[in-house]
């Protein structure tokens, strides 16, 4: 019984992290029509940057925010330097992000070495909280809280502001949005920065759970991919639901059928693809 | 989508038949005599590897070049052949049966891949094939009791077809050369066959093909199976070359490497994937002699090729060469070409 509760708590925390990772992935996909195959790298680079900031002696939250900003800047540079040049050539854009992800993997191996580097959670959150008879690890609760705040902010931004309306217009019909005067390419830069930054921030947040290690990028990218295929591209609600579905499948799958955890993780995705190719919350392209 | 453009050679530009046959003869002679003029068995092994990867890339080119479907799950088909053969040989199955099973399973897997991924085209196709490839990687990595997990499976024998041992580097090289030549010939026939032409039709004008009564889905499905068959053959050879298999063969890195071979050489050309395979393998060996960061170089080539020579090296250099020749041949007549001022 206790195992199930622990698994559930871990899954909720992982769901929060996956949301941070996938929200940007989904928005970028929605607006620019490309899966950013460097998204896992952003997560990993965020974690590594967090390691560096923590070594300098900054506070954990500051490290997370600074890493997020750093990765957002990196995302902006990539968008300007590479993706912008290839506008309209979606395939070339995807392949560039794939090439970049290989480069990032080796560059971070050169800088930070091959051994996993654990990030320590802020000392105030290292213990556990007891509610009734159940003990919650405080840090995992903090992750859920942070993810919930970010989800709320993103939702307000997308659903309630002028900027959000422009983004939604771009996602729905980029050409038409251009016609009515929305600068979709500028929005793309913004969303790419935002998505990259969220992934980088998520990397630091996930650090105390996963550590920073080579291959973290390759481990996270498929998860983001499944979340977005499950939830539907460009849909925030879909990403949120998808994140938690994937997190629960991942944790329970690994605990119950460790050898086939990956199959259990991918099976629902295949089912969704067969029955509802646009994803659970996605809309069919018009 | 510049990557998808097939660059057809204008007939007037084609070299005459005798020149082509001569070139073909020279290349064939060079290939057949590799174990003689290549001094070291180390280099013979590299040549074997190039031929294996060229076969793999030729197979992927069916999808990327002629069907316009960019797959990032090709390592799944390659790897499943590796693993099937490795597992069966390691539990004592004879090589012949193991090889048949490996290729058979590769074909079955490509059928499953095709059914799932051919619901879409373009980027969605790429994403689904990527996800499918990752599933197989995850299975190989985690299903330790069958696949050995990260340690992989190693065997200590190579098959002896018709009683000829393939243990030595040169004997193995000849086996890869024969398969390579068969696949090249098959591709040569395939491209100009009615099936190849209708496949290109589905790439360029899918809707029109449907209107004309072609079953676009079926054509793509068959192309996928053909591609999977060749990937399986390449995977089987790769396994026997290494006598070892690890989850790396199923990784995204493998899919990306073979895709880079196709794109760097030139999609929808016969020569492109072969040149690309040679280039990438040689680069890999040269680079790893100096630095360990092969992925860094792989990524950098990828980015550079896509930015600067999206049509690939073979069509790209052909274009340059033709431009150069045209300019040299007709320079006096063309006014716009800047000629050196004569005093």
Low-confidence stretches of chain A: none
Number of strands of chain B: 2
Helix/strand order of chain A, N-terminal first: HHHHEEHHHHHHH
Largest sheet of chain A: 2 strands, antiparallel
What radius of gyration of chain B results from the CA coordinates?
21 Å
What does this structure look like?
The complex is a heterodimer of chains A (286) and B (343). In chain A, strand 1 (128-131) and strand 2 form a beta hairpin. Chain A contains 11 helices and 2 strands; from the N terminus they run ααααββααααααα. The relative contact order of chain A is 0.20. Chain A has one domain: ABC transporter involved in vitamin B12 uptake, BtuC (Orthogonal Bundle), CATH 1.10.3470. Chain A is globular and about 60 Å long. The N and C termini of chain A lie far apart (48 Å). With 286 residues, chain A is mainly alpha-helical. In chain A, helix 1 packs across helix 9. By secondary structure, chain B is mainly α. Chain B has a domain at 40-250: Orthogonal Bundle (ABC transporter involved in vitamin B12 uptake, BtuC), CATH 1.10.3470.10. Chain B contains 15 helices and 2 strands. Mean pLDDT of chain B is 83; it is low at 1-13 and 331-343. Classes of the chains: A mainly alpha (286), B mainly alpha (343). The A-B interface holds A 33-35, 37, 82, 85-86, 89-92, 94-96, 98-107, 109-110, 218, 222, 225-226, 229, 258-263, 265-266, 269-270, 273-274, 277 and B 1-4, 70, 72, 116, 119-120, 122-124, 126-128, 130-131, 134-135, 137-139, 141-145, 251-253, 256, 259, 263, 293-296, 298-303, 306-307, 310.
């Amino acid at each position: 019984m206790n195992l199930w509760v622990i698994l559930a708590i871990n899954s909720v925390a992982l769901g929060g992290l996956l949301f941070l990772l996938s929200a940007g992935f989904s928005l970028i996909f929605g607006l620019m029509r490309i899966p950013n195959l460097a998204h896992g790298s952003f997560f990993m680079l965020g974690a590594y940057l967090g390691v560096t900031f923590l070594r300098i002696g900054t506070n954990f939250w500051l490290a997370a925010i600074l890493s997020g900003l750093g990765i957002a800047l990196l995302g902006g540079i990539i968008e300007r330097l590479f993706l912008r040049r290839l506008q309209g050539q979606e395939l070339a854009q995807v392949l560039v992000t794939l090439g970049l992800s290989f480069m990032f993997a080796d560059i971070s191996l050169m800088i930070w070495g091959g051994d996993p580097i654990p990030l320590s959670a802020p000392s105030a959150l290292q213990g556990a909280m007891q509610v009734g008879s159940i003990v919650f690890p405080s840090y995992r609760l903090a992750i859920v809280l942070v993810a919930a705040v970010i989800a709320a902010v993103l939702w307000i931004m997308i659903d309630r502001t002028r900027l959000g309306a422009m983004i939604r217009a771009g996602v729905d019909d980029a050409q038409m949005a251009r016609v009515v005067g929305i600068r979709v390419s500028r929005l793309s830069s913004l969303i790419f920065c935002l998505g990259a930054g969220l992934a980088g921030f998520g990397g630091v947040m996930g650090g105390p759970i996963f550590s920073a290690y080579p291959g973290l990028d390759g481990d996270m990218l498929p998860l983001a991919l499944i979340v977005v295929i499950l939830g539907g591209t460009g849909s925030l609600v879909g990403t949120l639901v998808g994140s938690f579905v994937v997190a629960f499948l991942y944790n329970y799958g690994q605990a119950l059928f460790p050898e086939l955890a990956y199959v259990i993780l991918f099976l629902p995705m295949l089912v969704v693809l067969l029955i509802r190719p646009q994803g659970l919350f996605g809309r069919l392209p018009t | 989508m510049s990557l998808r453009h097939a660059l057809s050679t204008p007939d007037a530009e084609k070299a005459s038949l005798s020149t082509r046959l001569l070139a073909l003869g020279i290349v064939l002679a060079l290939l057949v005599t590799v174990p003689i003029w290549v001094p070291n068995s180390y280099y013979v092994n590299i040549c074997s590897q190039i031929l294996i990867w060229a076969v793999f890339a030729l197979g992927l080119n069916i999808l990327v070049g002629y069907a316009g479907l960019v797959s990032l799950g090709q390592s799944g088909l390659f790897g499943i052949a590796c693993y099937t053969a490795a597992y069966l040989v390691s539990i004592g199955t004879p090589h012949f049966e193991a090889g048949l099973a490996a290729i058979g399973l590769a074909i079955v897997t490509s059928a499953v891949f095709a059914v799932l991924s051919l619901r879409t085209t373009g980027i969605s196709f790429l994403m689904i094939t990527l996800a499918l490839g990752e599933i197989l990687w995850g299975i190989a990595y985690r299903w330790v009791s069958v696949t050995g997990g990260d340690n992989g499976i190693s065997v200590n024998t190579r098959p002896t077809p018709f009683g000829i041992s393939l243990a030595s580097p040169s004997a193995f090289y000849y086996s890869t050369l024969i398969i390579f030549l068969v696949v090249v010939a098959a591709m040569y026939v395939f491209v100009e066959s009615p099936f190849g032409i209708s496949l290109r039709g589905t790439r360029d004008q899918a809707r029109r093909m449907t209107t004309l009564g072609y079953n676009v889905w079926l054509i793509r499905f068959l192309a996928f199976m053909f591609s999977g068959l060749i990937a399986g053959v390449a995977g089987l050879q790769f396994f026997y070359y290494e006598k070892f298999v690890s989850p790396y063969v199923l990784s995204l890195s493998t899919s990306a490497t073979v895709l880079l071979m196709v794109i760097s050489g030139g999609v929808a050309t016969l020569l492109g994937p072969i040149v690309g395979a040679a280039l990438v393998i040689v680069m890999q060996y040269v680079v790893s002699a100096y630095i360990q960061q092969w992925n860094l170089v792989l990524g950098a080539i990828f980015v550079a090729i896509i930015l600067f020579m999206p049509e690939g090296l073979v069509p790209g250099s052909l274009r340059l060469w033709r431009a150069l020749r045209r300019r040299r041949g007709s320079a006096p007549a063309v006014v716009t070409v800047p000629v050196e001022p004569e005093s």
